[in-house]
Amino acid sequence: MTRHFNPSRRDLLTGGGALIVSFSLAGEAAAQQAAQRPLSIAEVDAYLAIDVRGRVTLYSGKVDLGTGVRTALAQIAAEELDVPFNMVRVVEGDTALTPDQGTTWGSLSIQAGGMQIRNAAATARAELIERAARRLRVQADTLTVSGGVIRAGDRRVSYGELVGGRMFSLKLDPAKPAKFKDPKDYKIVGKPIARVDIPDKVRGRFPYINNLRLRGMLHGRVIRPPSVGARLESVDEGSIKDVAGIVQVVREGNFLGVVAQTEWGAIKGARQLKASWSKWEGLPEQAKLFEHVRATKVFRDETTGNVGNTAEAMAKDGVRKLAATYEFPIHTHGSTGPSCAVAEFRDGKLTSWSASQATHSLRRQLAEMFKMPVDDVRCIYLEGSGCYGRNGHEDAAADAAMLAKAVGRPVRVQWSRADEHGWDPKGPPTLIDLRAAIDGSGTVTAWESEFFIPQQTDKSFFVPLIPATLAGLPAKPDIAPGNIFHNSNIPYRFANVKAVCHRLESTPFRPSWIRTPGRMQNTYANECFLDELAAAANADPIEFRLKYLDPADKRGIEALNRVAALAKWEKRPSPQRGAGGNVAKGRGVSYVKYELARTYVAVVAEVEVDRAAGAIKVSKVYMAHDCGQIVNPDGLRNQLDGNVIQMVSRTLIEELKFDRSHVTSLDWESYPVIRFPDVPEIVIDLIDRPNAPPWGAGEPAAAVVPSAISNAVFDAIGVRLRSVPYTPEKVKAAMRSGA
Amino acid sequence: MAERRTLNVNGRSRTITVDDPDMPLLLALRENLGLNGPLFGCGLAQCGACTVHVDGKPVRSCVLPLSKVAPAQKVVTIEGLSQGSRLHPVQRAFVEEQAVQCGYCINGMIMQSAAFLAGNKNPSEADIRKALAGNICRCGTHTRIVRAVKRAAGQA
Ligand code: FES
Ligand code: FES
Q1: ipTM for the complex?
Q2: Is A67 on the interface with B (CB under 8 A)?
Q3: Which of A163, A230, A312, A548 has the fewest CB atoms inside 10 Å of its own CB, making it the most exposed?
């Protein structure tokens, strides 16, 4: 099972020689990162290493969460170095080996991490060419490179030969970025290279974290409180006397776990263990969730858009005023596999294996929790079930560490389905008020928006670890929902705009980021309300958007025009006229410029609404997508499909259920997700810009889906849905009230 | 307490020692036999991640107690689907269509489809969707999975 372990640096650099490129973390991307994340400390330099056989190893702080990033990063390095793709391998997310490139999130792995690797590769290539020129006694610019071999006429020297038996290292100089290859010469980047992980995944032999077994390892399960804030009053250890293989019941404060010789022993022990807990009913009533959100104390207001004077514009005589409130519910990540982790304490040092998307952050949190020096904690990433944000992986890692510490042996913790659905951090509920004014000519004169979203303590991205909280161990009680203010402001140029985020003091469940945090909810409300304005102005929804986009923003305009062509969009206002019959068809558009700074996505959704049943079927989704340079078009399409399908699910059916004590949607029956028969057909137009920087992809595509669906339903039946999920009950209620 | 049980897994008779015959087959495969292909997703027969074949039928091994598996019943896991290095046509089709994201559901998708295609040589897309309706993929790989199953149809 050694393949589970990340090799030591020495193993990687066999043969005694290597060219190593370290990222100087004073580089531009790192500086940006540091600005966003004051706690970022560079513990390990990033490396790209070329060994004496010409093999390339990338050390990536960004990890592959099942998105194909591993393959894409290897493509970037192989291309820039001119080595065959299969000569590159990637070591990911090991705090002892890989640099702190920040959390794998925000669709930034290629945009930020990939560019660091491109720079390192280009630097290495330039150095090798210099050395080859000296060795072959020719001018560097007369040399050609291919397949890791540098040639001058019929003389040649390979990278491996140049590395020879020596170690030498290069530092990236941020002031002198390396010269990149001309994209017109690309042979690997831009090609649909098959993903490196898929063969093992289809054979059932991929080294998921769930499959890691260490020598002497025990199995643990946690027993969570029956209500979020309950106190553990007593434990009856005798209640599991008859369970074979129990090693220890671990109790610390309100943290409770069972360790056993076998996994089945741990499962049975956890099920059977009798414990009594105090009563706690501190959650809001689910039916009044959004009243609760509105009534939550505001910690701070953040103005994200401010143009002109909306109050004055709204007060003008003769303007037509519109107002609407949008709601987006609490969602769970719902990873297909519940979180799992393994931990071992040895000689006072902790090694933690998990599928954490942020091993460097996890390391700091674990060190804090156990009052250990950060240097004594090593966190190693092993791929798990897809997480779509910060799910329970880190908490499971802390659970495993708690248990491993207590029993003095390596412990694997596998969460149950109910642990995952009940205790992963949640996407917080989002409430959005919108108001606008339209003048007599149909021009929007004012736009006001208010977003009721949780605060982010001290710009923290540390989601408190459950066992630390339960056991009363040192942990900051941070609220870390991610950068959810993004896309609260709009890309449309109205004369008067005001966008304000009311950052709330609290939110009912421990929040974190779930695919497209904030940007999606905010875009949802903005793009739906924009559609309301288009309808009020009796305008075609695409034309209406184009009218207000900045004419200089050509890429956004192109995305909208291309999706219109792709969907054979018929120019007319919504709703459609004279649609009779029980099943009404409609189409809706939505658009985002991600974070108002990068990736453009325009989408058209086609829906069928069964009036009698109130059921919505999303039959087709068309998308025009511009993320600049495309590294792997097939991998990109895979991600776009995934984001669309998951968002259709979240929009139509998903909603966390809870009572006053705890989550009650603890399985796939009470928290249903989309099934095969309901998956739409997806048609994508990729806009490739080989000469532009590669921007993030994935999350931006999710941002536009709920609004496109809502707008399509309005087009079909003339009814505006403003509260996700669009369950049949809500659809029928909206039809009755004729909203 | 401990007892020995015999299973026929991937064409071989295997004897294991367990504490409890109510232990699910999934754990016997993973923990006792080191077959990591079937994965734990829910333990509730709701997602399909743990699917194996028992006498050719797709079965959710997370809820099947060992005591219900007779020594003569043929258990096949995804590891036993391929013949040596030769992939089963469904596995091959999943590679060709790159029908994987995180892959956690893929064991179930492949095992479910392989059993389905064994009895349906020429299914429509709607048939395939129906056959997989009980399998959850949170990554949203559905479109590609359907294409892969379609590609494998007739070869499986
Ligand atoms: S793990 Fe068996 S069906 Fe989910
Ligand atoms: S590929 Fe991740 S759950 Fe299906």
Answers
A1: 0.98
A2: yes
A3: A312
